Amino acid sequence: MPQNITQPSNQIKLTNVSLVRMKKGKKRFEIPCYKNKVLEWRSGVEKDLDNVLQIPNVFLNVSKGQVAPHEDLKKAFGHTKVDDIVLEILNKGELQVGEKERSAQLERVNREVIDIVAGKLVDPKTKRVYTTGMIEKALDQLSTQSAQQHDPAKSHGSGTATPTKDGEANGAKPNEASKALPKWTGVTTTKSAKSQALEAMKALIAHQPISVARARMRLRITCPTPILKQTIKATAPKKDSTDEQGAEEQKGTVKDRVLGYVEQVEAQDVVGEEWEVVGFVEPGAYKNLMDLIGTQTKGRARAEVLDMAVMHEGD
Q1: Which residues lie across from 305 on neighbouring strands?
Q2: pTM of the entire structure?
Q3: Burial 116-147 (b: 16+ CB within 10 A, else e)
């Protein structure tokens, strides 16, 4: 018998593959993609579909090379246009990734979350920011506490209950007040870094493993009134945004755009031919505000830092 078995010439061997799956009409459909390219496509970094798809077809089972019959596509999607179905699966399907790829993605999201939190929280006494290492350590502490609350056996080694101040024994259900506090259980790849950073900040402020408060800059912004009603169209930040991913295209007046950066207005008035507003701006938005003032008002508007203030949640 021959010792070497050759691979059939008509069989396609897929390597370096990530599967995107979608279950529809009681059937599971798959498309084979290149690793790391699916997320780049969904974020808009990759524009060329040929760089994303290994084979531009829909499968019932990629590993077995089982192509989805037209009858199944018609029943599940209502049509048999393969290109449109591939795009729907690519954009909305569930991405299957390997352990290494999943770990790398989780680490990337974790770094993004920590960077965002470190830029938004300060020590309320010194008004100085914390290092990313200190923020990471505080979040690890919160996630450990949350895990122990879900598994009392880990936090209570002995079976003997010890009375607490509230007259309860260790291992008893937490009171309603503790249940209402925000929890932090660690990052996940199913949510955006921005939304998870907001959850992390709420938990840090509520539990205070280190002394933290939301950071704000108190500014006085002045602008000639004739400029205020000028219409401009450019990229402006959404509320609680910290980077370009939190930006959106907006059209409005200079006044609308300036106030879009001010999270809390303390006072505003018109004196003569000059409009003045005093309010709180997040430090991460300060540079964009200064760019707006410099480009759209040609330097005729001004922003003056009055204080590096802090605001606690609920202020």
Answers
A1: 219
A2: 0.53
A3: bbbbbbbbeeeeebbeeebbbebbeebbebbe
